[in-house]
Amino acid sequence: MSNKLKEILIQRQIKQIELAYETGIHDSRISKIANNWVMPTAKEKQKICEFLDESENAVFPEEESNFKDKVSNAKQRLSQIEK
Question: Which end of the chain is more exposed for a tag (fewer CB within 10 A), N or C?
Fold first, then answer.
């Protein structure tokens, strides 16, 4: 699955640190959101979308399924390690 936030940042040549500064969201949190390691809060989505002047759907399509896939994969790896 694609990561639209990361794609948009690359296309517009916006650095994650710039997005963090402009939105007031910590740069490490922006990195985690951009890499699909955490789901952004509603407020974070709003701030990011306002800065990018994009709709929520354009920036965060299918975000829940991306997150669920990562959790599922992590659980599978963990169960393999525990065996």
Answer: C
